[in-house]
Input
Amino acid sequence: MDDAKHNMEKMAGKAKEGLGDATDNEDLQAEGKMDQVKADAKKVGDDIKDAFDK
Output
């Protein structure tokens, strides 16, 4: 369930970045990239947590 949530967050970040590219909005581009980084970090954290729970 968490993986799906993180993937959705990452896709939303990519969409936001793409919208920023299309509108030449650097703030939106940066926000989209940051959303993707956050989603990746959450996924890594969950993967590590799962590895120790086994």
